[in-house]
Amino acid sequence: MSDKFEKATGRDITGWMEFMREHGNPHELSHQELVKLASRGGASDWWSQGIAVEIERMIGRRQVGQTVTGSINASVTKTVPGEWTDVFEEFVAFMESRQLADAPRITATEKWRYWRADLADGSQVSVDVSDAKGKTRLSAKIDKLPTMEDRDRVKEEWRALLTEFSVTVT
Predict the structure, then answer these.
(1) Selection from 40, 70, 37 nearest residue 52 by Cα
(2) Residue 35 and residue 51: Cα distance in Å, rounded?
(3) How far is CA 21 from the centre of its chain?
(4) What is the C-alpha separation between 23 and 17, in angstroms, rounded?
(5) How far is CA 147 from CA 71, 119, 123, 140, 143, in A?
(6) The predicted structure's pLDDT at residue 1
(7) What CATH number is associated with residue 87?
(8) For residues 148 and 66, is the Cβ–Cβ distance under 8 A?
(9) Does 129 share its domain with 48?
(10) Same-domain pairing of 47 and 105
(11) How many domains does the chain fold into?
């Protein structure tokens, strides 16, 4: 049976672990060293990061939802109809009406719009908005969660929030 790593790189995650062991002890390699090794093994930059993360999970260095620094995060996405720059403006107004953050930071590039804020519990949220082939993709990433137990609750809260927003999109 093929896994996502094999489909994308030609080598399944067990094969990547064997490759890592042939070139060093994965327990002793830093995240960046694992990334560089995966890259040398033929993985793209994006897949090299994913391989390194999965290897770290396999050796017990991190859990799902945990960053290389040990911080805990959660993410959810939602695709909605509409032109992405218009949807972003609607999202900003929607979030203002919810008063979840005192001073959100709004930035833009040619291909992305960002809504970022520090939340009362010390966590940080970044909502990235982009074109999804005629629709709009909203991706919320919540960093610096207080505990791993908060992760599922926060994911559900943001999933519900994005779903609530999706029914308001005109």
Answers:
(1) 37
(2) 7
(3) 28
(4) 10
(5) 9, 15, 10, 18, 11
(6) 39
(7) 3.30.530.20
(8) yes
(9) no
(10) no
(11) 2
Residue 67 domain flag: no
Alpha carbon 88 to its chain centroid, in Å, reads 19
pLDDT in tens, 11-64: 999 999 999 999 999 999 999 999 999 999 999 998 999 999 899 989 988 887
The one-letter amino acid at 147: T
* Domain limits for position 32: 4-58
**Tens digits of residue pLDDT in 54-91:** 999 899 888 877 777 778 889 999 999 999 999 999 99
- Parallel/antiparallel/unpaired status of strands 105-108 and 74-81: unpaired
Domain membership of residue 66 (yes or no) is no
Residue 65 included in any domain: no
| Token code pair at residue 134 | 């005629």
Q: Could you give the C-alpha distances from 158 to 34, 45, 50, 132, in angstroms and in order? A: 32, 29, 24, 20
Contacts 24+ apart (CB under 8 A), 80-83: 80/135, 80/136, 80/138, 80/165, 80/166, 80/169, 81/135, 81/136, 81/169, 82/135, 82/136, 82/169, 82/170, 83/136
CA-nearest of 157, 147, 154 to 70 is 147
What are the tokens at 119? 């939340």
